[in-house]
């Protein structure tokens, strides 16, 4: 499964002298197999929201559940992929991708075979005995993707996973990730500052206002964009139109910030 519910979530940071609102009244749902992206001005709370969804942070008010279970529960199976790959340099690629399975005691012959199958899908099965230092940045991120998916999470959280890569590698990885997530029917949330990436990869885009972050607008991605790979989507006229619309909304939020 992978049905996420974020119900009226707010987060306030408290100090001895002050209370700072980070997010206010965030409410949305993500259906099984759906891919959404979160955009917004710098400092609006995108990564904070992802941490709340992951159960790393606890909301001041409201609830976050995955298939009816609080995401802070150990029962909630959530995968997290960051800008940095955080592969263990002293472990081989094979050991890195199977580490999560081992920690969660999921290292059955079937799950190990599944991890190797995923590694083959991303074109790195021949790198099993290599170490992270022997791989390029794009290859390392592909390994990080496999490691995340090897535990078969119900929800995948992607926090700007392509932003440190060169543009050509980034575009190739967008296509690869989009293809695999659709094949595996995974539910996913992407945090990004890249409007084009959000449009090309998503079913919906959630735009947050400046801090305190609120949902300013939700954009539904047209069917013709969702039906093709991200690289192809960027060539469509409907992509350009939506890009300009979101750009104007984002510019307005930036202008009104503070």
UniProtKB/TrEMBL annotation:
Pfam families: ABC_tran
Segments forming domain ABC transporter: 4-235
Keywords: ATP-binding, Nucleotide-binding, Transport
Record's keyword annotation contains 4Fe-4S: no
Name of the molecule in the record: ABC transporter ATP-binding protein
Source species: Alkalihalophilus pseudofirmus (Bacillus pseudofirmus)
PANTHER family for this protein: ABC TRANSPORTER ATP-BINDING PROTEIN, TAURINE IMPORT ATP-BINDING PROTEIN-RELATED
Stretch forming the signal peptide: none
Stored SUPFAM superfamilies: P-loop containing nucleoside triphosphate hydrolases
Keyword Nucleus: no
GO MF: ATP binding; ATP hydrolysis activity
InterPro entries: AAA+_ATPase, ABC_transporter-like_ATP-bd, ABC_transporter-like_CS, ABC_transporter_ATP-bind, P-loop_NTPase
Domain of life where this protein originates: Bacteria
PROSITE patterns: ABC_TRANSPORTER_1 (PS00211), ABC_TRANSPORTER_2 (PS50893)
């Amino acid at each position: 499964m992978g049905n996420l519910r974020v119900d009226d979530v707010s987060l306030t940071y408290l100090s001895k002298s002050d209370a700072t609102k980070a997010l206010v009244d965030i409410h949305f749902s993500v259906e099984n197999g759906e891919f959404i992206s979160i955009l917004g001005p710098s400092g609006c709370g995108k990564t904070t929201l992802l941490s709340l969804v992951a159960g790393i942070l606890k909301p001041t008010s409201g609830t976050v559940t995955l298939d009816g279970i609080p995401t802070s529960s150990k029962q909630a199976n959530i995968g997290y992929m960051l800008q940095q790959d955080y592969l263990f340099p002293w472990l081989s690629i094979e050991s890195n991708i199977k580490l999560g399975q081992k920690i969660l005691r999921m290292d059955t012959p079937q799950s190990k075979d599944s991890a190797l199958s995923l590694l083959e899908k991303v074109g790195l099965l021949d790198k099993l005995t290599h170490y992270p230092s022997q791989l390029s940045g794009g290859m390392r991120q592909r390994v990080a993707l496999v490691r995340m998916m090897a535990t078969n999470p119900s929800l995948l959280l992607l926090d700007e996973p392509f932003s440190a890569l060169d543009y050509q590698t980034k575009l190739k990885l967008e296509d690869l990730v989009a293809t695999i997530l659709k094949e595996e029917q995974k539910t996913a949330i992407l945090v990004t500052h890249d409007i084009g990436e959000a449009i090309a990869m998503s079913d919906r885009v959630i735009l947050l206002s400046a801090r305190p972050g609120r949902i300013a607008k939700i954009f539904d991605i047209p069917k013709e964009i969702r039906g093709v790979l991200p690289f192809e989507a960027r060539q469509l006229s409907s992509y350009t139109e939506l890009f300009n619309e979101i750009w104007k909304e984002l510019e307005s939020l930036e202008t009104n910030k503070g």
